[in-house]
Amino acid sequence: MTVHNLGDQVVHPFARCLSSLPNLHTIKLGSFGDGPDTTLLETALGRIRLPRIKTLIIPEPAHPLLKHCPNVEDVVWVLADKPINSYGFLLSLRSNCGSKVERLTIPLILPCTPSRE
Fold first, then answer.
1. pLDDT at 17 over 60
2. What is the pLDDT of residues 44-98, one digit of tens each?
3. Which of 8, 53, 87, 90 has a CB 3.0–4.6 Å from the CB of 35, allowing a cystine?
4. Nearest-5° angle of CA 109, CA 110, CA 111?
């Protein structure tokens, strides 16, 4: 499943759709656009469990999905156009995935002018 823009209008239908796809193994979220925030996504997901999901390709605001995909093995962090909060994403990854993750891809962003430090 690939979702290109998960705005406020589609978060709840998106969560219901996920729970109705028992053979789904990969979720790819391209962009959140202007929303939703992580709290809205977490609320929409509720108690949904997605144990068959093995691959998540998500932007930082979608990190609540990690909690609902206990058997994820492959996590790819998609960069957004706006500043990112790596702390929330990494904390969620550590708290919810444990040692099942076999591959973690996080793009490295360097400053335009590297310092000599």
1. yes
2. 888 899 999 999 988 877 888 888 998 999 988 887 655 556 667 777 777 777 6
3. 8
4. 125
| Residue (of 23, 22, 31) closest to 2 by Cα position | 31
Q: Are strands 103-105 and 74-78 parallel, antiparallel or unpaired?
A: parallel
Kindly state the tokens that stand for 109: 């962003």
Cα–Cα distance, 56 to 53 (Å, whole number): 7
Give just the sign of the alpha carbon dihedral 42, 53, 109, 91.
positive
- Compute the distance between CA of residue 19 and CA of residue 76 in angstroms, rounded to an integer: 21
Token pair listed for 82: 């706006």
